[in-house]
């Protein structure tokens, strides 16, 4: 995985730099997300791996699939990736682009998995606390997993906060067995 990230990083940075200069971070984020989703399709993977097709034919077919969602500059970016045999990196490029975008916009996507749905007041309080802790604007996404018993797991970037009953019991068991 680290190798893919290393290969994708220059492309993500280039796309981000271009999108930032064009004041179109949102558009490029959507473009890359669409292209990444298309590249993950099994039929498209077969197409990209077809040895009977030339590089130009693969590129043209790929572009025809997502032509409605690509600007001219987006299509040029896809051509560049195809020329360098990097279309398979689109999911990683999209992910890295989104991270660069979030950093530039000082936003943070936070996923909260809780035993029960959070009330509006709880969501607001948690959002404010996390915004203060991470010094960023927080976008909270809540999902419910009733198997947690109680509490919540918070994922914010690389940070994971396990405040579940199960997690606390596991820590307690580990501490008593040490």
Offer a quick outline of the entry.
With 178 residues, the chain is α+β, with helices and mostly antiparallel strands.
The CATH homologous superfamily of the largest domain is called: N-terminal domain of the delta subunit of the F1F0-ATP synthase
* Overall residue-averaged pLDDT value: 87
Could you tell me the radius of gyration in angstroms?
21 Å
SSE pattern, N- to C-terminal: HHHHHHEHEEEH
What is the spatial order of strands in the main beta sheet?
Answer: 2-1-3-4
Please outline the major beta sheet: 4 strands, mixed
Number of domains: 2
* Unreliable stretches covering 5 or more consecutive residues: none
Number of strands: 4
Annotation keywords:
178 residues, alpha+beta, Peroxidase, domain 1, Glutaredoxin, four-stranded mixed sheet, 4 strands, 62% helix, 14% strand, ATP synthase subunit delta, transport, ATPase_OSCP/d_CS, ATPase_OSCP/dsu, cell membrane
């Amino acid at each position: 995985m680290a190798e893919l990230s290393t290969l994708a990083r220059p492309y993500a940075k280039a796309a981000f730099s271009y999108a930032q200069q064009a004041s179109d971070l949102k558009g490029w984020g959507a473009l890359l997300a669409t292209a990444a989703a298309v590249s993950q399709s099994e039929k498209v993977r077969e197409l990209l791996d077809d040895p009977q097709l030339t590089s130009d034919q693969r590129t043209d077919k790929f572009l025809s699939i997502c032509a409605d969602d690509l600007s001219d500059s987006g299509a040029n970016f896809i051509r560049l990736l195809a020329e360098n045999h990097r279309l398979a990196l689109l999911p990683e490029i999209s992910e890295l682009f989104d991270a660069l975008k979030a950093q530039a916009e000082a936003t943070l996507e936070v996923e909260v998995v809780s035993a029960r749905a959070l009330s509006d007041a709880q969501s607001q309080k948690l959002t404010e606390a996390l915004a203060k802790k991470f010094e960023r604007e927080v976008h909270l996404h809540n999902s419910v997993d009733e198997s947690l018993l109680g509490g919540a797991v918070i994922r914010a970037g690389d940070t994971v906060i396990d405040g579940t009953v199960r997690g606390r019991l596991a820590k307690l068991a580990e501490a008593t067995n040490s």
